[in-house]
Amino acid sequence: MRKQLYNVGAILKGLSITFRFMFAKRPTIEYPSVKKQHAPRFHGLHELRRYADGKERCIGCELCSSACPANAITVIGAENTPEDRKSPGERHAARYEIDELRCIFCGMCEEACPTDAIVLTPRFEMSDYKRGALIYSKDRLLVPADAGVGAAPDERPNGIPGDLGRVAEIKSTTDIERGYSATNRGEILKKQTRGLAILPPQREDV
Amino acid sequence: MPDWLIILIKSAILLLVVVTTFAYAMLAERKVLGWMQLRPGPNRVGPWGLMQPAADAAKLILKEDLTPRTADPLIYRLAPFISLLTAFSVYAVIPFGASNAGVWAIGTPNAGILFLLAITSIGVYGITLGGWASGSKYPLLGSVRATAQMISYELGMSLSFIGVLLLAGTTSLDGIVSAQEKWWFIIPQFVGFIVYIITAVAETNRVPFDLVEAETELVAGFHTEYSGLRFGLFFIAEYVNMLTVSCIASLLFLGGWNAPFGILPMVPGVVWFILKVAFFMFFYMWLRATLPRFRYDRLMAFGWKVLLPLATLNLVVTAIIVAFLGH
Amino acid sequence: MIAFWILAVIMLGSAIWCISASKPVYSVVALLLHFAALAAMYLTLNAEFLAVIQLIVYSGAILILFLFVIALLSSGVASFSVGPNRLPRIAIPAIVLIALALGFFTYAMGHAGAVVPAAQAGSPLGPVGTADVFGSVNDFGKALFTSYLLPFEITALLLMVAVIGVILLAGDHAPYVATRKHAAEVRREMREAILREGRQ
């Protein structure tokens, strides 16, 4: 009998918890209309950078291609000619293609590049209707000639790409200071049981 | 106006009201479930997602209506309509307000509560036949479960009614509500109320008694093979049944359109009734967000070994008290 | 009267469908239709309570168990297997019986007085509101628990006997044990019996 009563109590307790959660703060970010602020070094779509004089940084060395664990990068290099110098060195990339469907966005290409030509930007919205459209070739990867040089990850201000629209004001789920997005459920729950006090970011992992 | 025309107009209005209620009950359920799970719920279509039911309806209508090759075509097509017919025809006898002039009800038969029981007991055919006629294993299992579950819990449900009938001394819903002007029957019939609430959840196949469509075991139970509008009909029937049992709970145990403690006499009775029904609908959603599903053998044991004896005991005690003390 | 004819046609049609259907489930559906029409017929005769009980007991409980068994046996999809045609052998007795029954009914109708005045069957859509009309819940209940109490109780007893019989026939075959101590003894005896005679 006591056990049965205990079970009834457990049901009532469960009901009270769900009822309380109905009025709790929701961590949802309504994505297409509100966007999340990414960490500065977020690994998104690739970009081929230029030097300040407009020359391409890429020298067609194929180190990125061999570093790529997913075999997503195809580079075919060619000699620079005196009439048409595409890059400061002897060679440039005649073709540079990345299959974004194969890419795992690990950033190994970025690390392998001797001239800091290939970088990963925080842009991540690149869905398309056709598979072929997701093989990005040089014309889409290279920073346009009139758009500056492209930013290295270290130079980016907090990693907010310019085309992202309204950025979510996220106080509870993203800890920018920690350098990565943390949708940390445990943290949210802790806050709710203590009212709505905002916990200081935990720093032991830095 | 001739009688039949009035009845026809009332039925049309009621049909409209019930279908609209269904649409927004569905939206409300998704919203409430969302909130309880720290989600916002549907909010893309229209302001606060208010046009979501229209979008869902359009989607269901445009979907392909599939019939499996192994299905029995006649019964497969018939089953959703049986569900829908029984779900709606109950509203012929439910009074929504003080019906002295018959304004708030289509019909007020003497055996109203029995009529309700009769119609709801036929409702199980839609599920059973639909599951059987799909000609595939999960729906069959779902429908066999549905049959056993609904028959078992119908007993407890009927017995929980009888205590109320004894106290009210009538089987007409109108009479039962007017007998509760002073005391709602939830107070003298608390055990009956608890039994009714539990069996009502089981009768409508809702969480935690949704073994009929247990998606973790049976894909979608009896309506696994149904698609498009036919699935929609089952869906409507489920929500309309929810609404029905909420109405019955308000009528039988919460005093129908009587205001609590006679407060606020200027508020029309139908408002109180709607509030009470809305509370029960919310309670359903609340349960769904809270409780996990029963195991099948425990469901059966609970129905036969706990609820049925409890309801019988309640009935016997009520009968003794009524016999010695009068109503 | 119109309602009667419509219902009569439905009832006859569904009854014929029920016995001639090729699949068991169709028979159940036909029978369901038949019961529904029968309940409606009771309503037109002012027998409100009987109509409702017809639906609750027959359609809601008994027929659904038929369906349950058919669905469980999964023979529902298959048609009845076709055996030898026995129609010629039963045709003559059937016709004789029908003729006898019809003759009996005509005789009885001719000699009996009017049982229920037709005027009492108020509105064709069923009685509304009034408490004590013929066939209402009050009327039915009073008759059942006063004049017909003994037959009612005897029927209840019969049904109880049937239920106990079913439990004995189909219940699980574990021996009946009254107490927990006794249960332990029974278990030990069974264990020893198995050890003596080897596993069955």
Please explain how this structure is put together.
The complex is a heterotrimer of chains A (206), B (327) and C (200). Chain A is an alpha+beta fold. Chain A is built from five helices and five strands. Chain A has two domains: 60 residues, no CATH class; 110 residues, Alpha-Beta Plaits (2-Layer Sandwich). Helices cover 21% and strands 12% of the residues of chain A. A three-stranded antiparallel beta sheet of chain A has the order 2-3-5. In chain A, strands 1-4 form a two-stranded antiparallel ribbon. The C terminus of chain A is likely disordered. Chain B has 327 residues and is an all-alpha fold. Chain C is mostly helical. Chain C has two domains: 104 residues, Four Helix Bundle (Hemerythrin (Met), subunit A), CATH 1.20.120.1200; 56 residues, no CATH class.
Counting H and I runs of at least 4 residues, what is the number of helices of chain C?
7
The major sheet of chain A is characterized as:
3 strands, antiparallel
**Rg of chain C:** 25 Å
At the fourth level of CATH, the homologous superfamily of the largest domain in chain C is NADH-ubiquinone/plastoquinone oxidoreductase chain 6, subunit NuoJ
Mean pLDDT over the residues of chain C: 74
Kindly state the percentage of residues in helix of chain C. over 70%
Helix/strand class of chain C:
mainly alpha
Low-confidence stretches of chain A: 159-206
CATH architecture grouping of the largest domain in chain A = 2-Layer Sandwich
CATH level-3 fold name of the largest domain in chain C: Four Helix Bundle (Hemerythrin (Met), subunit A)
